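so my prof wants the structure for this chain in the tokens format not the other one, which i didnt know existed until like an hour ago. anyway here's the sequence
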Amino acid sequence: MLASAATFSSASVLCSTKPRTPPLPSFSRRSLSGLRFRIRSPNPKIPAAAPVSSRMEAAQPQTRDAEGGAESSAMKLLFVEMGVGYDQHGQDITAAAVRACKDAITSNSIPAFRGGSIPGVNTDQMKLQIKLGVPRSTQHLLDAERVKAVFPYGEIISFEVVDGGMICSSGVCLEAMGDKNDDCYIVNAAVYVGY
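here's what i got, hopefully its the right format
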């Protein structure tokens, strides 16, 4: 014989679940294409972020004239390469920065500089701007010359180190690999390429 099963109504199931949280406040915005979208903020006292432009506007360093006005861009920007580098053992921030720069440049080919796509421009005219996000507590340990040596060609016209990256646990301390602790260093790199 089959045992009889208790029947549940949908009302009893709903009552036994935890109460629903109220909906998040939202703000209506109109995008550049005219479509409407909503931005929701989990905290009604903190307004949602303003929409971000979908246009890619490169922030290029500008040189200044004697009066402080903008003269011209340091280079004509063609593209930006980005990478992430880790040093899981040994706590070497330079190794993480070298890996971040290699990650940024190794998945790209730049035939325009060799094939004459830009008249009068070749690898001799290539210019690079390097920006690294490095944890503040390790910035003084960074060997910039070792990082710059990663780039096979192009003139490095700026090399900037900003607060960024991360120090987190690698989960294990291996003295045989030079570890002093279980810290893993992470560096972010942005390489601006132009002429």
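also thought this was worth mentioning. The longest strand covers residues 183-194.
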